Amino acid sequence: MTHTILIDCSDAKGLVHKVTGVLYHNDLNVVSNHEFVQPETGRFFMRTEIDGNMDAERIHNGLSGILPADANVRISENRKKRIVILVTKEHHAVGELLIRHQFGELNAEILAVIGNHDVLRGFVGQFGLPFFHISHEKKTRDEHETEVLAKINEFSPDYIILAKYMRVLTPKFVEDYNNKIVNIHHSFLPAFIGANPYRQAYERGVKIIGATAHFVNDNLDEGPIIMQQVIPTNHTQSPQEMAQMGRDVEKITLANALKLVFNDRVFVSGNKTIIFD
Amino acid sequence: MTHTILIDCSDAKGLVHKVTGVLYHNDLNVVSNHEFVQPETGRFFMRTEIDGNMDAERIHNGLSGILPADANVRISENRKKRIVILVTKEHHAVGELLIRHQFGELNAEILAVIGNHDVLRGFVGQFGLPFFHISHEKKTRDEHETEVLAKINEFSPDYIILAKYMRVLTPKFVEDYNNKIVNIHHSFLPAFIGANPYRQAYERGVKIIGATAHFVNDNLDEGPIIMQQVIPTNHTQSPQEMAQMGRDVEKITLANALKLVFNDRVFVSGNKTIIFD
Amino acid sequence: MTHTILIDCSDAKGLVHKVTGVLYHNDLNVVSNHEFVQPETGRFFMRTEIDGNMDAERIHNGLSGILPADANVRISENRKKRIVILVTKEHHAVGELLIRHQFGELNAEILAVIGNHDVLRGFVGQFGLPFFHISHEKKTRDEHETEVLAKINEFSPDYIILAKYMRVLTPKFVEDYNNKIVNIHHSFLPAFIGANPYRQAYERGVKIIGATAHFVNDNLDEGPIIMQQVIPTNHTQSPQEMAQMGRDVEKITLANALKLVFNDRVFVSGNKTIIFD
Amino acid sequence: MTHTILIDCSDAKGLVHKVTGVLYHNDLNVVSNHEFVQPETGRFFMRTEIDGNMDAERIHNGLSGILPADANVRISENRKKRIVILVTKEHHAVGELLIRHQFGELNAEILAVIGNHDVLRGFVGQFGLPFFHISHEKKTRDEHETEVLAKINEFSPDYIILAKYMRVLTPKFVEDYNNKIVNIHHSFLPAFIGANPYRQAYERGVKIIGATAHFVNDNLDEGPIIMQQVIPTNHTQSPQEMAQMGRDVEKITLANALKLVFNDRVFVSGNKTIIFD
Predict the structure, then answer these.
(1) CA-CA distance, A276 to D47, in Å (whole number)?
(2) Å from D48 to nearest chain B CA?
(3) Which of B39, B205, B228 is nearest residue A224 as measured by Cβ atoms?
(4) Fold of domain D2-77
(5) pLDDT digits 0-9 by tens, B166-186
(6) Domain boundaries, chain D
(7) Does domain D81-275 have CATH number 1.10.4030.10?
(8) pTM for the predicted model, two decimal places
(9) What is the tens place of the pLDDT at every residue in B233-242?
(10) Which of A99, A244, A277 has its CB closest to that of C105?
(11) Which of C213, C210, C215 is nearest to C232 (CA)?
(12) Which site among D123, D124, D126, D242 would you substitute to test the B interface, given the most B Cβ atoms closer than 10 Å to its Cβ?
């Protein structure tokens, strides 16, 4: 059994020494250790992996005694994260996660896939996983979202993954799952915010297209960026071909970003991420 | 001696056959041949490289006889292009061009470097090339630009290269050198248009930064894109470090874009480029 | 209906003119056209896409009349290619193809998956496709391969895809399907030929790992390269983590290479490919 | 003034706590901290940046008291490294370093450039730096190298940079400057070891070419790799064009690798590097 300790607090002299002291005096074996102080906020971030048995409560108390009052301390067993995936009609991002999940490569347990359309029911079923269709038709945004949230809450997931879920979330939803919702955006943010990014990219004549995996905050395309990847394009490619190439980069970018998130390697600080990889 | 024939016109059946017929009946040796029809404009683009002696006027007349009335035909000897470089204070983009020029790798002759500041005079002089300081201080934009244009016109350059020239050009300037001005922009356009892109990139917490080489039209950051390149970044890098990394990608992107332009491989169609590489 | 015409022959003056003449006089609409002359062989390669109805035999005869005697002319309807996939135990490469196939993104029809182990039977079955287990145990290489070839021949495939098939093919097999077998190799060839490339890469301390999709000739890791892709790695990654990252790049590299092959964009010339993309 | 403390030793419980304790009790301000334990050697590596005044000897003694007996401790002021560059005839790698040096971007002081040919004398002189021609003609390898070493030793450099120095070094030379010699190799090692790598790459028909910056040990192309970078190529490019593209990637790869080395971010462990970037 291994554990990960995640600490963030205002910076102070001797923090690493004090934190590692608590671990040392509890006879814990540190496998890896990362620290970072963000210049513009003066905030200290630390991630420590522990091998072997550990009394999490005792360590938590020990750390509370030596850290500044504003510290957040999270101690997580290195178990698979529990996730719910939201989709609309596109298969590629969810398909990548379903295959990795089936072969134990996702470091997460997919509890359910929820779609506002029914088109991916069969596909998800092929992988033996439950699919719930919650149509948005003839409902207000609030009504639809309340149903979706109710279904999600049944599963108490650690994270919600928007795998090409083409609906804007309300601030209420985002607040309930603060820094727990990961989206894959079909462009190299902040370029081409909004609809039809590949059409936009085609019309602008760009030579590279990309994808951005990010946490969702109030504004769909504006949350903290976890990972970005790109591929070259050229004048011969139609918007449809760009979109197909984009799907490849989207699915790999999402899967790689989730690997970081599920391994507790990502801190959020304001609108940015700090990633210890 | 080799020549390049560049044709663009509205598409019609048999164009390749007819063009290559003119070349064949003139006993010319085609080294390479590229064609493309742009779907949204229905426009035909063709680039042909000829090896051996050629009567350019005769070929021009022959092609005019078989091409649509709206055809543009350019026949260029494959000689070095004549260029003038505009700079402000930064050395990296112009430095890359000066070194390549010195060792015959640029496929261009640098006729002059003009700066609105005097700081790069010594650096340019190290390479034995003329530097002209035309200060913008105490002058209107028009007054300054008139002086700059007058100096440029003395050299009758094929192309003007903005190697980190931090002044916006007037529409008049751009019109005089339509599709003959290449700029290197310090971001992955269309992200981070405008000032301080690395500061913007830092604040947005992006994971990739890039550079864009493009022709200049009326709007400084909006012309047809020739080349884009990117490099990864992360949360540990300050805006200054991002800027330093950005300089590397800027200078290589500009040099590579110019290689395409100087080898007559780039067509402009509206706000896009068609590149036969 | 569209067709693709693929020609390769020794170079001669006027070939493009003559070929396009046959097409023009048959009133065919050329959508795209690529030519290349390979310097070291003096061989001419041409790929032409035709839109609209076409009498393939008539065009074939017309081209034979004007091309050198050593010309190969292939005219293919742009239909889905018919393929058989060979696997061993790993799921990622075949999984990528199964998903693209299900959603019509592969431009191929998967006729069967054949494994020398039985572990992927269930996985292939999830996609509703036939899986055949032909064990190599207690058989000579020739005996096993004869069985595999017999099964493959039942389907008369256009191409055989080695999606992490960990068996060396005999020269007889390769000869039967000359330039029709595509393999994905788990390294950036020619680095790390042979077994355990990720272990080799780890021990050499490389900073980039890659994958190579190539046609198979006599020597498993030596055929004409179609596509290569890479990803960065570093000292913190174990051979297992490198292998997992490698699987991502392998599957995308294979899928992208097959897209080129299935769209008739790849010529083989000796131990190299010429790709019109 | 900042300092960097570099420690490597066999791993033991509590090392980070003990090291940071020495720093804390000396009232030092830790700016950044990295640790890594190499699995296959069980060796601990730590890099710490200190801001403010520091009594290096006192810290050295303090650390010696708490670290295992096999520990190497290096404390370096963050000053520019002193370097000598060795060249043959090619300008691109040394040119990149000369320009960065002139504008204070190299974090190193170039003391001298030594060439076994005289062709770059003028070029180095343009940057106001001393060039020494030590011809290898009519000398044994040992005789030539003795002269080169004598000249190098006059400058007592921290590092020797082989910027396309096309001579194999003797074991004696390498031993004298163990882990202090950085070479740029014109291929993606371990592919294409030896002469004419671009010719080899062309003949193999690879789709990507690369460069490798590495420390030199006994075997010229076999030392610990610091950085590797790649660029795509295709069938249209001649060996000469591949070589030109290769020069771009070589010079940037070398410059970026040196940035890591000169900032004390690179440990060598056996034939590998551990890089804290």
Answers:
(1) 16
(2) 15
(3) B205
(4) Alpha-Beta Plaits (3.30.70)
(5) 998 888 899 989 999 999 988
(6) 2-77, 81-275
(7) no
(8) 0.93
(9) 899 888 888 8
(10) A244
(11) C210
(12) D126
